[in-house]
Amino acid sequence: MDVTVRVYRADRRSRLKVLGLIAVMLACGVLEVVINDVPGWLAAILITVLAIVDGVWALSLWRTRTVVRADGLAVVGVARTRTWAWHDIRDLVVETQSSPPRRLIRLHDVRGRKTTLPYVTEAHLPDLHALRPH
């Protein structure tokens, strides 16, 4: 039995750099609210909203990944994980987005839906096709 699992996600160093940037942005937002002598109730709302937005951004960076196994594929997001068995996948396609120009790997399922595979690049496609049963 083959237990090969491939996980595609941002590397640890990149995640830590962006988390540092998120922390600096949160600190700047809080400082801006405090310096401008915003009323207490409004300051609490602004800081809460800023903390929630930055928290969701950080969580998405930490959780988002594509997991490929012999039995199928999963896309892990902030709030949910979507899974497909190989027989539910019609094709894996490289699509070009024009603004800004970049190439995305999209999963096309048998129902006609498209899903972008986070952190999967063209270089990873041979590995994905190798794990897919024939």
UniProtKB/TrEMBL annotation:
PROSITE patterns: PROKAR_LIPOPROTEIN
The Low molecular weight protein antigen 6 PH domain, residue ranges: 63-130
Record keywords, A-Z: Membrane, Transmembrane, Transmembrane helix
Keyword Transmembrane appears in the UniProt entry: yes
Keyword Mitochondrion: no
Residue ranges crossing the lipid bilayer per the database entry: 16-35, 41-62
Full protein name: PH domain-containing protein
Organism in which the protein naturally occurs: Streptomyces justiciae
Lineage: Bacteria, Bacillati, Actinomycetota, Actinomycetes, Kitasatosporales
